Amino acid sequence: MTFDQLLLAVRADEELVIPASWSQGRPSFGGLIAALMFDRMEHLVSEGRAMRSMQVSFVGPVEPGVPATFHAEILREGKAVSQVQGRIVQNGEPRLVCLASFGGDRESVVKVEARPAPEAQPVEQCPSLPYVPGTTPEFIQHIEMRWSFGHMPFSGKGGREIGGWMQFRETPETFSDAHIVALVDAWPPAVLPHLSSRVPASSLSWALDIVHPRPALTPGDWLLYKASIDQAGAGYGHTHAGIWTAEGELVALSRQTVTVFG
Question: How many CB atoms lie under 10 A from the CB of residue 25?
Fold first, then answer.
């Protein structure tokens, strides 16, 4: 199933079985389940209120092939901002908990331009991370990444940065905020190039802000992603990232805490 097909499925029914083609080892791809949960939450709020900030806690793995239910409720709806909570439950246990703030525009004299996008090689000059069955995560067959910053995971070469270009391999019908949520989490943790052998690593928590008014995006557009390590040690890594259009316009800001078992 494509990402768009899964979006339609979760809109039609709160229960969904994630296909194995969207897995990353034992769990389903975190960006996918967060995006599906976000989409369900977004459809509860008043029109004209865009997602400004979202915090995700990956409580446990959402297993592919097992029914999971997506629950969303409005906690508070003020004059300009709606606070929404989402939960994914599987086998009677919470597997993902999410809080998101949706807000309409406000009148303000404050206006500060975003920092410029980093310099990156053109997409066609960047090596692609291929989908290799049994080696790369299964969801890589749906999302293409072109390396521009840092080293490959498990190369043992270290560094603080990782990233490059990204898009869906199956061109979506539209390019919504839900599509952005899924793409941003596709990149491997920036700490993985410090390892010389494969060990488990996963996101513990994730905070994502989408900038609005959001730059116009059309299906098939490439987005640029660059993550940097703030600190890592004792089995945890703390990173921040920016996401830009090919024209250098800021789209989103991301922060993650990841666990590393090695």
Answer: 12
